[in-house]
Write a structure and sequence with these properties.
By secondary structure, this protein is of the alpha/beta class. The protein has eight helices and 14 strands. A hairpin with a 3-residue loop joins β13 and β14. α2 runs parallel beside α3, α5 crosses α6 and α6 crosses α8. The longest helix has 15 residues. The chain is elongated, with a radius of gyration of 19 Å.
Amino acid sequence: MKLFLLEDDDAIGMGLKYSLEKEGYEVIHVRTNADALKAWKTNSFDICILDINLPDGNGYDVCRHIKEKEDVPVIFLTASDAEVNVVMGLEMGADDYVCKPFRINELMARIRTVLRRSGKGKDQAGSVTDGVIEIKNIRIHTSEAKVGVVDEATGKEEMATLTALEYRLLLTFCNNRGIVMSRSQLLEDMWDVSGDFLNDNTITVYIKRLRNKIEKDPADPQIIKTVRGIGYILEK
C-alpha cells in the first residue's frame, strides 16, 4: 500500500513516516508544494495525507492537482478545526481531515476507514473474501458500501438499508474491533454529511437504529455491545 505524505514539519513528517512504515505502508514523504507536484509526475499512490499550510503554497492546491489526475483518497492535516478549512477541504473532494495535534492511533484508524470506503483497504476487522467483511451474521460489501444480514436458518442474505452515517458508524467499530469506544471517540470520527457535527444524544440514536437493522435481537445485541458507563465495543 503506497502512501503519499505532504508535511513540511520535519519532526511530524519523520515521526509519521516511521509509524506508517511500521504499519506496513510504503511512504513517500515530501515537504513542499513543488516537490509534491514533481512526485505525482512519476508515481501513483493509494492514499494521500496532506498538510494544509506549506512554505510555498497550500495543500488545497495539491489536492486539486491530485483529484484532477485520479480519484485517490485524501486526508487533510490541519492546525485549525475552523469550519471554513474543513468545508473547503471536503468540497475539494477530501475524504477526511485530522486536526493537529492528533493521536497516531486516531490517524491510523482514519486511514483504515478511508481506505475501506474506497475499496482499497486490507481489512483486519473480520474474515474478508473479495471485499466482503463477515462478522457474525452480517456481511459488509466494502466495494459497494452495502451491508447484508444473513438468516442463519436459511443462509439467505437480505440487504439492510443503512444511511451513510450508519454505514460509517459500523465501519468505525470494524476499524477498532476489540476496543471499547466512548461516545466522545465515536463523535471524533463521525462527520454529518449535511455539514453538522453529531452530538452525544444522536450517537445513541444512531447506534439504536443500526442495531435495529443488523442485530438478530436488538434488545440483546451480539455485534455492537454496550459497556456500561464507558461506551460500546465490537468484540474480536
